[in-house]
Specification:
Elements: H1 2-17, H2 22-37, H3 43-61, H4 78-85, H5 87-94, H6 101-116, H7 120-135, H8 140-166
Helix pairs in contact: 1-2, 1-3, 2-3, 4-7, 5-6
């Protein structure tokens, strides 16, 4: 098996550097070299391994960095500020229990209805407020709301990542 991987690794840079139909040429070169080093000359077995070689090259080529599960910061826009300030009115507009599936379905329409009913002056004020929230800090009430809804998940994610990456056990006491 290590001979096969060595053959594949030799051609990996070629595979990454070509595009389109040229991949077929690299795959053909890999296949020929692997056939020369194979212990058996059984054509059916060698043909079956050709698919394995192609899959290995694809898997090595298309690695992407994993996206973080949790975003620790938030950029406030005027729209987000309006929603945060009028969240209670939007919940009333939906007429459903917060967190229910029916409320989630009705949320976009209720948000649109509430926000179109606001005065232009209120909308202009939220642009200034959004800049203030981004540059300084959000009000304590908003911070408390975010901590209540997302705090446990963020703490769990942090503790898990610290253990995975540094082998550290983290103890966090959360009191609200």
């Amino acid at each position: 098996m290590s001979r096969k991987i060595a053959v594949l690794q030799v051609h990996l840079e070629d595979w990454r550097s070509v595009k389109g139909k040229d991949w077929h040429q690299v795959l053909k070169a890999v296949y020929k070299e692997a056939c020369l080093q194979a212990l058996t000359q059984d054509k059916a077995l060698l043909k079956a391994q050709k698919k394995t070689y192609k899959e290995w090259l694809y898997n090595q080529c298309h690695r992407k960095a994993p996206k973080p599960l949790i975003k620790y910061g938030k950029k406030w826009t005027a729209h987000h500020v309006l929603i945060e300030q009028n969240k209670a009115r939007i919940w009333e507009e939906t007429g459903e229990m917060p967190g229910s599936e029916a409320m989630i379905v009705k949320w976009p329409e209720a948000t649109k209805t509430v926000l179109t009913g606001l005065l232009a002056e209120e909308k202009e004020e939220t642009n200034v407020l959004a800049d203030k929230w981004n540059n300084e800090a959000t009000p304590a009430e908003v911070q408390a709301n975010v901590a209540e809804t997302k705090g446990a998940d963020i703490i769990e994610h942090f503790a898990t990542e610290m253990f995975k990456q540094a082998g550290m056990r983290v103890f966090v006491m959360s009191v609200w």
